[in-house]
Design the sequence.
């Protein structure tokens, strides 16, 4: 009887956590080119709506990451390092652009090294949907009927 209670409790918790909404913006990263930990510098870009956040892992399948550090902090958002990755939080009124730079240190296969990642952030248009007329409008004033 006790075992059935525990299994039911665990199943209920898993179902509840799976149905909770995710806050991270899906597909926020653009132009992700693999780095090699060979002294290379890569330019990545991100598109994010005001008040949203974006999470991105930094480990490729053949890499072991030892350290991720922030060289240049963003000016229009907040950056949090999360394991071998990062999470960028755009301010609620974010428009325009932002940028930050990370250095990743580790091993690619058996070769130790580092890479620099320069991430440029662009503000995405906030989309509003009117269900009554199937109209989509963004904050630039553009209106599209569907």
Sequence:
């Amino acid at each position: 009887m006790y075992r059935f209670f525990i299994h039911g409790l665990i199943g209920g918790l898993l179902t509840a956590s799976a149905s909770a909404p995710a806050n991270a913006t899906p597909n926020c990263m653009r132009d992700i080119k693999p780095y090699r930990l060979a002294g290379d510098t890569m330019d990545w870009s991100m598109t994010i709506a005001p008040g949203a956040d974006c999470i991105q892992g930094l480990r490729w399948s053949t890499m072991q990451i030892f350290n991720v550090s922030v060289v240049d902090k963003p000016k229009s958002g907040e950056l949090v390092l999360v394991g071998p990755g990062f999470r960028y939080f755009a301010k609620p009124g974010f428009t325009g652009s932002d940028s930050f730079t990370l250095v990743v240190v580790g091993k690619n296969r058996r070769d130790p090294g580092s890479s620099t990642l320069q991430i440029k952030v662009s503000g995405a248009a906030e989309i509003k949907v009117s269900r009554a007329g199937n109209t989509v409008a963004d904050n630039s004033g553009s209106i599209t009927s569907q």
